[in-house]
Each structure stands twice: as C-alpha cells, then as structure tokens.
Write a structure and sequence with these properties.
Elements (H helix, E strand, L loop, with lengths): L4 H5 L1 H5 L3 H21 L5 H12 L6 H8 L3 H13 L3 E5 L7 E5 L1 H23 L3 H20 L1
Antiparallel strand pairs: 1-2
C-alpha cells in the first residue's frame, strides 16, 4: 500500500519533501538573476517581458493581454506601461475596434533597448541551459509541464 502524499508532506518533517518549495526557490533564483542582469539597463523583469511580447506582436497588444503574458495583475501592468511610456520605449493609441482600449506598440528606442536586454536575459537562460544535458533539458520541460497541468486540474 502506498502512503498518502498528504501524510508524507504534512508538518515540519514533510517540508523537505515538498516540490512546491523547490519550484519557488528555482523561480526566485531565475527572477533574481534576470533582475540583476537587466538592472544596468534600467529595466525590471516585467518591463522586459512587455518589450519582448511587443516585439513578437508588432500590431500591438492591450494592457490586459500584456498583463496575462507577463503574469502580473492589470493594476501592476498599468504601472509598468506608464513607466515604459515615460521612457519612450512604448507608444499607446486607441484601438480601432474598441474606443476604451489602448493598443501598445514598441517604439524604435524600445526595440533598441530590447536587443541589449534580451542578450542579457538569454545569458541567464544559458546558465540554466548549461546545468543540464540535452535529454535532461527535455525531461525537465516535461516535468514542468506536468507540474503545471497537475496544479491546474486540482
């Protein structure tokens, strides 16, 4: 008979077995490394995420779309967009389809800064990449996807 995972993971003794803590530590390490890499450019990780999304969608995106893509709240995204607009890295204009929606697009200055920011972010990702060989990387991706699916189903 297999032990109940809830019993194994309960209390202080089970804390060391919890996968959630390892996931959180890995995410925090990744975000800290990217934040450090981008700091010299005057960008935060969410600001970089916005610039990267906009480079992939030259037709522009709404604030709500950008918030979902950057995994932040719409309120947080409003602040991120205000800062980026103040730095002239993005431009915002009313949507042709919805009068109350502003479409955000990357400016030339934003595109130029993104080139350097992306090189720095890729450097962080490359360090993670180098920690695993090819089969391990693919297995890691499979495990991460499975973790996300398991949590979305619960």
């Amino acid at each position: 008979m297999t032990a109940d995972p809830a019993e194994l993971l309960a209390g202080p003794a089970g804390a060391r077995l919890r996968l959630g803590l390892e996931l959180k530590h890995a995410e925090q390490a990744m975000m800290a490394a990217k934040a450090e890499a981008l700091r010299g450019l005057g960008l935060t990780v969410p600001q970089y995420a916005v610039l990267l999304q906009l480079a992939e969608r030259p037709e522009g995106m709404s604030g709500a779309q950008l918030a979902r893509g950057a995994a932040v709240t719409p309120q947080t995204m409003a602040g991120v967009l205000a800062v980026l607009e103040g730095k002239a890295l993005i431009g915002r204009s009313p949507s042709d389809l919805h009068a109350k929606v502003l479409v955000t697009r990357l400016t030339e200055a934003g595109r130029t800064l993104l080139t350097e920011a992306d090189a720095r972010a890729v450097g962080v990702e490359a360090a993670l990449w180098d920690a695993f060989d090819g089969p391990e990387r693919e297995l890691f991706r499979v495990f991460l996807r499975r973790a996300a699916e398991a949590l979305q189903q619960s």
